[in-house]
């Protein structure tokens, strides 16, 4: 599975669990940290953990990948799942606004998720 396909798989898993404001950014040209960031918002700690669980399940079943690292589960306002080439960020609304990753990585290329996300 390519890094882009992994990013789309993560976005679809987030969408299926009703993640909010899902976005993906290709950052291959900007950094060696990863090729893609996938970002979503959860409404509560419970939903944030459910969103992350859905991503982990989809990535394991469809890509055969476990995260290399998980960060932030204890405090639940920002959870990061690092798959090497794809990093998934699930935020509370307040944390997402505060960290503003889309603004920080504005030089990245937005990924079209219209074929993956359902219309609300």
TrEMBL record:
Entries under InterPro entries matching the protein: Iojap/RsfS/C7orf30, NT_sf
Record protein name field: Ribosomal silencing factor RsfS
GO CC terms: cytoplasm
Assigned protein family: Belongs to the Iojap/RsfS family.
GO terms, biological process: cytosolic ribosome assembly; negative regulation of ribosome biogenesis; negative regulation of translation
Keyword terms, alphabetized: Cytoplasm, Repressor, Translation regulation
The protein's role, per its UniProt record: Functions as a ribosomal silencing factor. Interacts with ribosomal protein uL14 (rplN), blocking formation of intersubunit bridge B8. Prevents association of the 30S and 50S ribosomal subunits and the formation of functional ribosomes, thus repressing translation.
Gene name of the record: rsfS
Protein's cellular compartments: Cytoplasm
Coiled coil start-end: none
Species for this entry: Dysosmobacter welbionis
Record note on quaternary structure: Interacts with ribosomal protein uL14 (rplN).
GO molecular function: ribosomal large subunit binding
């Amino acid at each position: 599975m390519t890094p882009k396909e992994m990013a789309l798989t993560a976005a679809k898993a987030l969408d299926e669990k009703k993640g909010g404001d899902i976005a993906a950014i290709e950052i291959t040209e900007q950094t060696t940290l990863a090729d893609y960031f996938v970002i979503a918002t959860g409404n509560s700690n419970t939903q944030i953990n459910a969103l992350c669980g859905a991503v982990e399940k989809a990535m394991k079943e469809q890509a055969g990948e476990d995260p290399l690292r998980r960060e932030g589960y204890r405090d639940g306002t920002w959870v990061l799942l690092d798959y090497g080439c794809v990093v998934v960020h699930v935020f509370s609304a307040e944390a997402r606004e505060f960290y503003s990753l889309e603004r920080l990585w504005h030089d990245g290329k937005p990924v079209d998720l219209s074929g993956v996300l359902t219309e609300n």
